[in-house]
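Field reference: sequence -> structure
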Amino acid sequence: MCVRTCAACPACRKDTLHSFPPPAPVETKPVTEEDIASSFNLPYVSVFTVQPFYTIANYPAVLKWDVKNALDVVIEPNIGIVQAAGTKDFTTPMGTTTYKLTATNAQGSIVATTTLTIAGALPGRDIPVIKQFAAGPHIIKKGESSTLTWKTIAASSVTLNGNTVQAEGSMQVSPTETKTYNLVATNTDGTQYQAVTVNVK
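Structure field:
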């Protein structure tokens, strides 16, 4: 309980001290990536994935995406203009490919990326796995920072844009323009690639 002076107490009509319950704590809602996109009035890409993420050439695969607040959505390479949400079945290319989704509205564009790793044979159980690779926030202003976070499994070597990093970790980056970061996890059974983009506005 807290005590404070009440100058207009209806009970006694004079200055006095009364006990009042403390104010209820204000619950703060965590800021989400969608909130950040909304603050810029830019599109928000909630889903952009490829499955399987590690396979062989000429094999069935599917891209999946879901974009909000966009007037146009384009996926490259070889996909083109698409609806704001959907899937695309395709035959995998001959080599590892990073797919780029560009979502545009009147305020500008946002880029999202996902990587399909092509191997010489179907993966075994011991291939390295990139379990997580994300940027937060994924939209920043010039001079601000974003944190890259990653986690790999069964990798003997991990590089981020060509620089050796730990199998699990995080790093602050402050690009001056929109930039895509590439994570590569390798062991004797194979290599997996993944990409994430930090948008600078």
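Note: Helices lie at 33-40.
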